[in-house]
Task: structure prediction
Amino acid sequence: MASTVDRVHARAPGKINVYFRVGGLADDGYHPVASVYQAVSLYEDVWATPADGFTLSVTGSVELGAVPRDDTNLALRAARLLAREIGIEDGVHLQIHKTVPVAGGMGGGSADAAAALVACDALWAAGLSHAELMALAAQLGADVPFALMGGTAVGTGHGDQLNPALAQGRFDWVLAISDEGLSTPAVYAELDEYRLAAGPRAEPAVAHPGVRPAVLQALRQGDARRLASASHNDLDPAALRLRPPLDDIINLGLDEGALTAFVSGSGPTIAMLAEDERAAIGLQISLSTQGHKALHVHGPVPGARVVAS
Ligand code: ATP
Result:
């Protein structure tokens, strides 16, 4: 199949886990989770152009040292998977521009994979349905289907069994970004260790975690204050034990007016919810003037899509 266009630009959002419950380690080696994802206005851009093989270049506004440039890069894996699925022998060059912090708990690599799927689908005129792309996304990683879907959604199982959640209006977030990422497996291992060490004092890890109804109500009502009091992340203590200075950033955010502040996913990005846009701008300025890398974003935003050139 020959390409019908010579360059496709796609964009996919990073995510915040507004709510994240992690069950006990199951026999399959995974933790069952219950997650409420929200896609936010911090984006990964991918340009796909025809090439002989599968190649990659990476630019961005974040620390890029930890981004794999070889075949383990999730965007390249996505392109190869799609090519295999539709049975073509064409290659592709993917140019990625990252603004989502690497290993930041915001699903940046997953967003690259979702954008690559959408870009290559258009480049190769494959015409896969949303459901077909979602099935490929699920093969690439637990967070990839959500990057494709966007908006606000509940994820169960490994986080990849998604159901859209109703959310009204917009939520304004300030993200405190760290240059050095945290390894997701290391954070989960720390959580297991912590639960084991705490013994009967630890909150029991459930086999089938669920989402607190108050979270979904707050989203439906577009009520930032209610969302702040209902939000929760089971990985928070584990990430803070591995990176104690994050606690100071959380406290600083709360002192400066954040309704709540918590680790996003496995961290180290700290997500702070603001009352409204104005409050978020004030909070972002306060954190920046005190030497922190802080960004103001909003959610929910749509999932991966082609950007008209
Ligand atoms: P997770 O999805 O595990 O929670 P995260 O959101 O914390 O991850 P990512 O930026 O997605 O962080 O990257 C996690 C790891 O995946 C990186 O440390 C890197 O080794 C690997 N990786 C593979 N492809 C990519 C990519 N396109 N961009 C960034 N990292 C990638």
About this structure: Residues 155 and 162 are 5 Å apart (CA to CA).
